[in-house]
Amino acid sequence: MSDARDAELDRMRRQRPRDRFARATALLLFAFGAGAWLSGALRPGELFGSRQQGNLRRFLFEELPPAPLRGDGASWSDWFGGLLGGRGIEAALAGANTTFWIAALAIVLAATGGALAAPFAARTLARPDPYGRADAEHPSRARTLTAAATALRFLLVLARAMPEYVLAYLGLAVFGFTVWPLVFALALHNCGILGRLGAETIENLDPTPMRQLRLAGASRAQMLAASGLPAATPNYLLYVFYRFETCVREATVLGLLGVASLGYWIEEARIRAYYDELVLLILLAMVLVLLAEVASTAARAWIRRSG
Amino acid sequence: MSAGFTARPLLGRRSATVLAALGLGVIAWFQLGLTLDDLLPDPARGATARAFATAALHPAFDYQGDFVPAAAPPFWRGVAAAALRTVVFAAGGMFLAVIGGLVLGMLASASWWRTAGAGPLGGRLRPVGLVAARVTIAGLRSVHELLWAVLFLAALGVSPAAGAIAIAIPYAGTLAKVFSEQVDEVPRDASRAMGALGAGGTLQFTCGLLPRAARQMASFTFYQFECSVRAAAVLGFFGFPTLGQKIAASFANGNYGEVWSYLYALIALVLTIEMWSARLRSGRSVR
Amino acid sequence: MNLGTRFELAGVGLELGGNPVLEGLDLVVEPGECVALVGPSGAGKTSLLQILSTGHAPTRGRVTIDGIDPATASAEVLRELRSNVGSVHQHHALVPELRALQNVLVGRFGRQGTLAGLRSLYLPRRRELREVHAVLDRVGIGELLYRPTTQLSGGERQRVAIARALYQAPRALLADEPVASVDPARARDTIALLVELARERGMTLLVSLHDLRLALDHFPRLIGLRNGRVEFDLATDEVGPSRFDDLYRLPRTAGGT
């Protein structure tokens, strides 16, 4: 009797619904992550090698402390004045300023591009009968829109597949050393991200108001202008400010490629092995990012409050 | 609601934000001293630009350089190996980041302190612990993975493990921040019911709250993994043996076909992960 | 077979956010009794049940559960007390991401440590599987043992919630508006099931209800609450229609929801 019951339990267990794909993915990623360390592919042992330990000791006790602390008689004012090859901390602040404006311009371009792309990439719109009514008068235009949406979504994926750093690296080689390649690299990558997030925002909108407009005879454009876009804007702006924060982080780093943002001075300090200066500049970059984060959080809270 | 009674402000918050953003763009233009002339490719680099652009249609299937060491593996295997190393760096970094993100995220979530962290000791530590965890997270996040890499290069020299750790640090911060927010936003009815039938705080947290956020947490982790693959590729520009190193070397040698082969490999990697994640998200909500 | 719990309230009052919710309650519920709490919304039914399940401590007066005052009990004793009082919530309070089986296993969490609880949830023993299956069978959904809770209907979820309370093997069962959001036929079935289970296992049962018909048909004792006070506390056959009219009489000033 209890055997029959157990057999029944076993049958139910075997037939239980489960997501094998998710489970396999989790296992695969875990195996890859753990394997990266355990297989020795990343050579974690090296971190504790005598050469690395020696490097670390030299870094911490000889290179990192600013000259006045090392006791070789240098004064703080000399050290401070000698920063950034004698240009002083003002140059670094100017670099931070440039970094901020690169990020600002890039996010404005990316947000504009993303906003233009989103309605054309949204799956709920790219169909012959968006929100319940077919475009009877323009069947061919609906087909074109659907095809364009597929192509656009692919382009957006491509845009975000490329790391900003690689885009900037290639851009600098082609356009020369101006700020434009950095702005474009950031704008392009973020346009890909914002375009997709914008499209998802439109797809997740409450369909009722747009259905009603459609039933009342509104065209696609009228429906979007009257309901879709105003409803999607707050959420989209939240994403924009969130990406702005990342843009500031990235803009700092793109300077490492040799254009006058904060990163440029970081790279200079690294090449010259002025590690006290390097750490000072990284701290400055940190402050810049934290400021951007505070600003972005405040802006997002402001938008949320207004609903 | 009250819209009928109060006069609408001249400018809604939405339009105000949009206008302010556009204004910011204009200011940026002047601050950066941009000119439209700079938008044209540098004439001195015109040939490079053309050669590079045309190579996009002709990615290399073999080494383009004149001096290929006899012992070098076939080109495609070099590409595959660099791509694999990129994924290994990313996975190694993410492995640590997820562990760090879970621990820090727990400490930074109000709901952990309310359930598992409750009790006489937790009650006293809570105000300090919560703030300390959040400050730590902000600190980790605010330094970009490449800057951590630069710092480790300065302190240790090139070491693959240091590269993976450079990725792990800021990613742990980001994961922790998002995890804590996700757990705090989950409905609490189930965990409260567990408390009412006498379950301990840790069980309330791990069985009443975590499973409810797990799906979103997994989905964000997967997205971060995609980002970490890009980050790992970029680490190559700083001497780590990932795709970026190959891209930089081939570009410096003018082998633009090779550059495109590596770029396409990177794009293929990211697209694969993207498709994988889409498939995951379409799956049933079963664990 | 469990022996039911005895609840005793003496002069109990409760304030939430400065507003009086309950005032001067003197009640005794004997072990194994089945009692319906009736009254309009906002009468304090939910708050009373929460006091009995130790979710709220009364602001005034004293509650004893089997002679123990939860306000002064040690953490250990309080936990034991809680594990002996099961609840069925209006919105079920299940974890939708877990399977029916796992949601039922949660019922024993009050008697398990962290590791034992996690082990039972993710690596249930054969004995536990049999027990959970038996309980789910008892409420009529044994076949759904491994079904993810998200894939269950509202009625099925409610049965899982009841099964969780049964698996807890409590000595008292408290149900707050268990049928507020289900259709009349199912409401009748659910209430009948709760009463039947309480009798079968000797549990004390307290159910708050909107529907007077259900209360009259299934419970021997009715407690009418209004504005946080006991309006009446009678055996069912002593309750006349005028009692209910008084209970649900609309106040002159607008009431809550």
TrEMBL record, chain A:
<keyword id="KW-1133">Transmembrane helix</keyword>
<feature type="transmembrane region" description="Helical">
    <location>
        <begin position="248"/>
        <end position="266"/>
    </location>
</feature>
<feature type="transmembrane region" description="Helical">
    <location>
        <begin position="100"/>
        <end position="121"/>
    </location>
</feature>
<keyword id="KW-0472">Membrane</keyword>
<protein>
    <submittedName>
        <fullName>Phosphate-import permease protein PhnE</fullName>
    </submittedName>
</protein>
<feature type="transmembrane region" description="Helical">
    <location>
        <begin position="221"/>
        <end position="242"/>
    </location>
</feature>
<dbReference type="Pfam" id="PF00528">
    <property type="entry name" value="BPD_transp_1"/>
</dbReference>
<keyword id="KW-0812">Transmembrane</keyword>
<feature type="domain" description="ABC transmembrane type-1">
    <location>
        <begin position="96"/>
        <end position="299"/>
    </location>
</feature>
<dbReference type="GO" id="GO:0055085">
    <property type="term" value="P:transmembrane transport"/>
</dbReference>
<dbReference type="InterPro" id="IPR035906">
    <property type="entry name" value="MetI-like_sf"/>
</dbReference>
<keyword id="KW-1003">Cell membrane</keyword>
<comment type="similarity">
    <text>Belongs to the binding-protein-dependent transport system permease family.</text>
</comment>
<keyword id="KW-0813">Transport</keyword>
<feature type="transmembrane region" description="Helical">
    <location>
        <begin position="167"/>
        <end position="188"/>
    </location>
</feature>
From TrEMBL, chain B:
<keyword id="KW-1003">Cell membrane</keyword>
<dbReference type="Pfam" id="PF00528">
    <property type="entry name" value="BPD_transp_1"/>
</dbReference>
<dbReference type="GO" id="GO:0055085">
    <property type="term" value="P:transmembrane transport"/>
</dbReference>
<keyword id="KW-0812">Transmembrane</keyword>
<feature type="transmembrane region" description="Helical">
    <location>
        <begin position="260"/>
        <end position="278"/>
    </location>
</feature>
<feature type="domain" description="ABC transmembrane type-1">
    <location>
        <begin position="83"/>
        <end position="275"/>
    </location>
</feature>
<feature type="transmembrane region" description="Helical">
    <location>
        <begin position="82"/>
        <end position="104"/>
    </location>
</feature>
<protein>
    <submittedName>
        <fullName>Phosphate-import permease protein PhnE</fullName>
    </submittedName>
</protein>
<keyword id="KW-0472">Membrane</keyword>
<dbReference type="GO" id="GO:0005886">
    <property type="term" value="C:plasma membrane"/>
</dbReference>
<feature type="transmembrane region" description="Helical">
    <location>
        <begin position="222"/>
        <end position="240"/>
    </location>
</feature>
<keyword id="KW-0813">Transport</keyword>
<comment type="similarity">
    <text>Belongs to the binding-protein-dependent transport system permease family.</text>
</comment>
<keyword id="KW-1133">Transmembrane helix</keyword>
<feature type="transmembrane region" description="Helical">
    <location>
        <begin position="146"/>
        <end position="173"/>
    </location>
</feature>
UniProtKB/TrEMBL annotation, chain C:
<dbReference type="InterPro" id="IPR003439">
    <property type="entry name" value="ABC_transporter-like_ATP-bd"/>
</dbReference>
<dbReference type="InterPro" id="IPR017871">
    <property type="entry name" value="ABC_transporter-like_CS"/>
</dbReference>
<dbReference type="GO" id="GO:0005886">
    <property type="term" value="C:plasma membrane"/>
</dbReference>
<dbReference type="InterPro" id="IPR015854">
    <property type="entry name" value="ABC_transpr_LolD-like"/>
</dbReference>
<dbReference type="Pfam" id="PF00005">
    <property type="entry name" value="ABC_tran"/>
</dbReference>
<feature type="domain" description="ABC transporter">
    <location>
        <begin position="7"/>
        <end position="252"/>
    </location>
</feature>
<dbReference type="GO" id="GO:0016887">
    <property type="term" value="F:ATP hydrolysis activity"/>
</dbReference>
<dbReference type="GO" id="GO:0022857">
    <property type="term" value="F:transmembrane transporter activity"/>
</dbReference>
<dbReference type="GO" id="GO:0005524">
    <property type="term" value="F:ATP binding"/>
</dbReference>
<protein>
    <submittedName>
        <fullName>Glutamine transport ATP-binding protein GlnQ</fullName>
    </submittedName>
</protein>
<dbReference type="InterPro" id="IPR027417">
    <property type="entry name" value="P-loop_NTPase"/>
</dbReference>
<dbReference type="InterPro" id="IPR003593">
    <property type="entry name" value="AAA+_ATPase"/>
</dbReference>
<keyword id="KW-0067">ATP-binding</keyword>
<keyword id="KW-0547">Nucleotide-binding</keyword>
